[in-house]
Every structure is written in structure tokens, then in C-alpha cells.
Design goal:
The protein has helices at about 1-20, 30-35, 95-130, 135-160, 165-175, 225-230, and strands at about 55-60, 65, 70-75, 85, 90-95, 180-185, 190-195, 200, 210, 215-220, 235, 245. With about 250 residues, the protein is an alpha+beta fold.
């Protein structure tokens, strides 16, 4: 009796395994209703990167963050998000007391340089004639070089503050000091963001305008390490649906 029960149990187990291993037939209509997709399986050695979801982004050298070089107050705004600007177009005006001090120091340094230049010219002739000592001539040269360095340094600071060469020449000629810093577009671009508001107190660390050069766009995407191993710099990417492809520049 026990032997018969054991044989029956074994037979039932074999029948169950055989049923589980069978292929369940699915009609074309059932497959569509269930959303089942059938694809050909390729070996790992032949697999490529496949489809990659990518997004359009600006190249690293195609984005600009505009900040004020000196502390001040945001006085005027000329652009909004989405505006297109050309190189040199004014974006913002920052009114700064530091700008006033910088221009004043530059004019003083320029006056000192002119004075030292006159002294240097006069004493050079005296030195060539042997009328002054070598020590005095060395002191004259030192004073001239110091004044020249001070003038050049302040001129450089003015250019960093947004003044052009013509602006600096005009300041030297007219000696008209103003508090405004005009921040201009460094390239042809589109305004991506303009978070600053009129009247904001600025210390130089705030983002005022973010620009993107539309001529410097790239496709950027993330993919697995195994898929990335199939890609090489210089390879081509085909866009889904046709159209112009792209070249891989970094993996």
C-alpha cells in the first residue's frame, strides 16, 4: 500500500513538471491585448549601445555666468529670460561706490605717472651729462617704474569692471567720474536666466544673468558602463527617425 502511494506521488510530480515546462500558446490578438513585444536576442559580444536618450545642452565653453566685478546696487536691467543678445549689448547697470573710488585712484595714478615721466626725462639727460649721481638716477628710475606699475594695475581693474579701452581714454581726457558699471554680453547668445531684481544689493557673488551661445550646442546622455564600452570617440550617432547625425566627442 505504501509502495503504491509512493509511485502515485512520483507520477503526479512528473506530470506537474511536464505541464510546467510546456509553452503556453498566445494568439496574435491576445499578444496585442497583453502588450507583449517580441524581439530578436543578440549575444553580448555583438550588442551595441542601442538606443540612448539624449538631451540638447550647451557646450562647457558656451555658457556664461554674468556677475558684477564690484559691490553695488542693481540700477537698470535691459534683458529678460529668452531674449537674444549680440556681443557687446548692455545687459545690466550696477551703481557702485567702489567704481567711483577706482576711477579716482586711476586718475591720481595717471597724474603721478605723468609727473614721474617728466622727472625721468629731465634726469636722464643730467645723468648722461654726468651731472647727477648714479644713486639719484636709480631712485628716479625706481619712482618712475613704481608709478607706471600702479597706473597699469588700476587701468586693468577698470577694464575688469567693464570699461572698454575707449572708456578709459575718455576718463583720462575728460576726468568725469561716474558710479555706473555697464555689464555687456561677451558673445552672441540667448538669456537663459536673469534672477537678479532691480534694487538688489550686490557683493559680486550673485548670479545676475546666465547666457548660452546657441552656436555651441551638444547632445548629452547617460548610459550604462557596458553600453559605453561599445562606443569610441569619433564614432557616429544616428538620430532616430533620420536627419543629421552626430559625432561622439567624449565617452
Amino acid at each position: 500500500m505504501k509502495l503504491r502511494n509512493l509511485l502515485s506521488a512520483s507520477l503526479l510530480l512528473m506530470l506537474s513538471w511536464s505541464v510546467a515546462a510546456q509553452v503556453l500558446p498566445v494568439s496574435e490578438q491576445e499578444r496585442q491585448l497583453l502588450g507583449i513585444e517580441v524581439r530578436t536576442v543578440s549575444s553580448a559580444a555583438q550588442a551595441g549601445a542601442g538606443e540612448i536618450t539624449m538631451r540638447v545642452a550647451f557646450a562647457p565653453d558656451g555658457e556664461w555666468a554674468i556677475k558684477t566685478p564690484l559691490a553695488g546696487v542693481l540700477h537698470r536691467v535691459f534683458v529678460q529670460q529668452g531674449d537674444r543678445v549680440a556681443k557687446g549689448d548692455p545687459l545690466l547697470i550696477v551703481r557702485s561706490a567702489e567704481m567711483v573710488s577706482l576711477q579716482r585712484d586711476y586718475l591720481k595714478a595717471r597724474a603721478e605717472l605723468n609727473l614721474q615721466q617728466s622727472i625721468w626725462t629731465r634726469e636722464q639727460k643730467l645723468h648722461e651729462a654726468g651731472s647727477i649721481s648714479e644713486r639719484r638716477w636709480q631712485e628716479t628710475r625706481f619712482n618712475h617704474d613704481t608709478a607706471q606699475a600702479e597706473h597699469a594695475g588700476l587701468r586693468g581693474q577698470l577694464k575688469l569692471a567693464g570699461l572698454t579701452d575707449d572708456d578709459v581714454k575718455r576718463l583720462a581726457t575728460d576726468a568725469e567720474i561716474g558710479p555706473d558699471i555697464v555689464l555687456r554680453a561677451p558673445a552672441d547668445a540667448v538669456v537663459l536666466a536673469r534672477p537678479a531684481m532691480l534694487g538688489d544689493q550686490l557683493d559680486g557673488h550673485e548670479l545676475l544673468v546666465r547666457l548660452g551661445e546657441t552656436g555651441k550646442l551638444i547632445l548629452e546622455g547617460n548610459l550604462s558602463r557596458s553600453a559605453a564600452s561599445q562606443l569610441l570617440v569619433g564614432g557616429r550617432i544616428a538620430l532616430q527617425g533620420g536627419g543629421t547625425g552626430a559625432e561622439l566627442t567624449y565617452v
